[in-house]
User: Fold these one by one.
Assistant:
Number 1:
Amino acid sequence: MNSRFMGMVLVLLSLTIVAGAQTKTSGVVKCDKPSQPQKLDIGDKPNHSLIMAQIHCTWTKPMEIAGTETKEDTVTFSNEASGMKAQGHGFVVGTLASGDKFYARTHGTDKYNKDGTVESSDGTFTFAGGTGKVRRIAGTGTFKGKPDPDGNIIYTVDAAYELPK
């Protein structure tokens, strides 16, 4: 076998081992309406704007991470809205019941109803570290949200993570 082929085999084997070591978890989180959203119209076409806001979220069905449950999150995000859709990026600071915190970067899409309220929200996230037991957490996940009758968004979250030994 040539060394290039052998190197590729080793890389594939190591990826398989890492993927097998991930812990899967899921939960449901309720996010309040944004506090003090900032919206700036761009002016190039109707309904094209940049939005920045922060939201507080509470886990109604917590995920388990590192042997403890998720408790609450603060999400800070920016969206580019155009028509009935917005694309955005955000940053999550999540607090576990133990007091440890995890950090995640998000990318998602919001779709709006004709009245300007959120119809659906979905996207992906990547863990970006934390404190205590989750200081070096790594992994990814997805989220899908729908509004409740009060205008809060209820997200179903699925994640896969690993913690270095």
Number 2:
Amino acid sequence: MCTTGRKIGSSEVALLEKMNLKPFFYGMKVVAAYDDGSILGADIVSLSAENILAKFSEGVRNVAAISLVTGIPSEVAVPHLVIDAFKNLAAIGL
């Protein structure tokens, strides 16, 4: 009955009101952003949930790697330390 980009008439509006449907979407499309003297395009500014999760996971991996190399235990490195300790115990047992 309704398609994107096509105007609807009064009969369609009356039918949608009877069915208690509101098929309208209002939003904002980012074209560019201004940051500290530079203009950033929409492709740089818009991030999806997958991109944010990937960046966060990369940061956690970096923190765990630094923690393991320096020998300072941290919350993200504890699972690796426990697994390594188990491997060492299994090697001694064998």
Number 3:
Amino acid sequence: MAIWTNALSAVQIQQLYFTATNSVIQTAPVFQPLTRSGNILFLNWSAISGRSYQVQYKTNLTQSSWGTLTTLTATDATLSFPDDMTTDRQRFYRVVLMP
């Protein structure tokens, strides 16, 4: 039970409910500094151990859909994926936390 001195908005109530009913906080992956070795670009991002992440890309931001490079399951607080840049010299990436 909790008592507030002011009325809570619907969003605040939803956030409180979500926090109280979910043991794992859902956080968006955050890219860490990228590294490169020859044509291999290493993507590094924050992760939740046990959760799956899908690495997606576009070669042009005007494309309507994203291509999938791989799906990985985290065993630690970070994940890394080596992408061979031989075929496409320009790529835009995103990492999606899977349900």
